[in-house]
Write the structure tokens for this entry.
Amino acid sequence: MANTQPQKIWQKALNTLEVDISPAVFNTFFKNTTAESLDKNIITVLVNDRYQKENLELRYYGQIKSALDDITSEKNEI
């Protein structure tokens, strides 16, 4: 898989999430994230700090997973 593939999938997920999440929340928790890898339906997303990671995991995991599952037509883990 090309190195750009995880980021392309992640960008599509971000585009989907941006519609459903307030601009303030999106800019705080999602805007500065990148996808590092996608291997066996596990996407690794890089974040800036622990606070951002915890908020994405605790508050937005379901929405993120749903967006990724829809985009890839597979069940994914983050």
